[in-house]
Amino acid sequence: MPSQVILRLKCDQYLIRYLETLYGDQPIVFPKKSHFSKFLDVFLLQPPLDYVETDHGENTLSILLPYFEDKDVRSYNYLTKKRQEAFINEIRKHFKITYRSEIAKSLVCGLDRQDALAIFIEKYNLSQDTWDFLEKDFQRYLKLRRYHGLSKINKNSSD
Questions:
Q1: ∠ CA 120-85-45, rounded to 5°
Q2: Reported pTM
Q3: Which residues touch 102 (CB under 8 Å, ≥6 apart)?
Q4: CA 69 from centre of chain
Q5: Which site among 44, 49, 101, 127 is 20 to 30 Å from 144 CA-CA?
Q6: Distance CA 120, CA 22 (A)
């Protein structure tokens, strides 16, 4: 059961839509044992006395904080700028792993990249504005795989 305390962070729109697809509408409620809940448990602080919450408009990610064993979320409901960036980066990493994995699976199933990308965008309710970003990211991923030899399957040392 989550608390009634909401944490608001500045976040890219595509990440917000991704989280909403996974966890439901905002405010996002992470499962108690999720990686994101554990991250919040470790990094939440008491807000400074002069803290004023900032509204980031449509780029505001609202998270309904769960109850933690060691922290009272009525008092510990603040992330410093660095901690916010680290948390958003964790979300971004999760997104990239999911994205690259799903696109690769679609390609293995015989879809072309454009169709795989369109299906991913539809599945996670992403804006068409993300198309170029996702296409470029997947290109970089393929180059990295080739560079690091990850695409070689069962390379025999006697070859």
A1: 125
A2: 0.84
A3: 116, 120, 123
A4: 25
A5: 127
A6: 13
35 CB-near residues (< 8 Å, 6+ apart): 90, 94
pLDDT in tens, 5-28: 999 999 999 999 999 999 999 999
Q: Residue 60 carries which side chain, given as an amino acid letter?
A: T
Question: Residue with structure tokens 């919040």?
Answer: 40
- Whether 127 contacts 17, CB under 8 Å: yes
101 vs 69: CA distance, rounded Å: 34
d(CA 3, CA 90): 22
What is the distance between the alpha carbons of residues 8 and 87, in angstroms, rounded to a whole number? 12
Each residue's pLDDT tens digit, 98-153: 998 998 899 889 999 899 999 999 999 999 899 888 988 888 777 766 666 654 55
Q: What are the start-end ranges of the H helices in 33-130?
A: 35-43, 81-108, 113-123
